[in-house]
Amino acid sequence: MRPGQQLTLQIDHKADYGYFLTDGDESILLHHSEIIEDIDGLEEVDVFVYVDHEGRLAATMRKPIISADHYDWVEVVDAVSGMGVFVDVGLTKDALVANEHLPPYESVWPKKGDRLYCMLKITSHGRMFAKPAPEDKISELFHDASPDFMNKELSGTVYRLIASGSFMISDGGIRGFIHSSERKEEPRLGEKLTARVIKVKEDGSVNLSLLPRKQDALSVDAEEILSYMRSRNGAMPYWDKSDPEDIKTRFNMSKAAFKRALGHLMKQDKVYQEEGWTYEKK
User: Fold this and answer.
1) Which residues constitute the domain of residue 52?
2) Which among 3, 8, 65, 218 could disulfide-bond with 90, CB atoms 3.0 to 4.6 Å apart, if both were Cys?
3) Which GO terms describe its molecular function (predicted)?
């Protein structure tokens, strides 16, 4: 028996902390914590062989989500600087995506809750590694976008980063690319995003944007007002009837510019006014 095998083993005998299983030559422990259904009265059981946290060969009735020849989405549960990220593969022990398979900058490494499309590799010593899928593997999930996707929003997961931008696969399998000019900050690998389709290409993929539509974009004045409010826990003692001199002193803008910016914020339902104050909506 070796780590990574899926075997059907005979139940040899019961112990206080589980069952000992055998293939006729070797025996292995199936701990109570690794039993997911009643096996009393059975003669054999299907198990996955792995190395437990104490370095011992052990058995579990849990089956990994991914394997050496099966890719699937797995969730990130932890990140360790300089080492990589750990992903939940359906076992009590997590698998490591080593830093060599991650972006060079840790600022865009996946965070807890992000997802990666991976396969599983288990060494002879029982260490479990997950490796993100190459383009030819993840392309098996792709579906062509039709022309009516133009200007629609797509939600999906970032699966690849390059110098000029980020590749995303939508929940429906549409392949999208976000150029660096179409974002304010670089998304993380594995991050879930919602982006707007700005071009449907002949190959069925799309170009995406994370920037707001021009009519939805906040002006510099609106951004300044919102920034000031957030520095004061989302409230300020100014509204559209405030004295022009007070507005000029605080924001260095005319009352007309202040009212336009404030009106834009209210139209987008970002703020509201009440008794001489303006509040950010949470």
Assistant:
1) 6-60
2) 65
3) nucleic acid binding
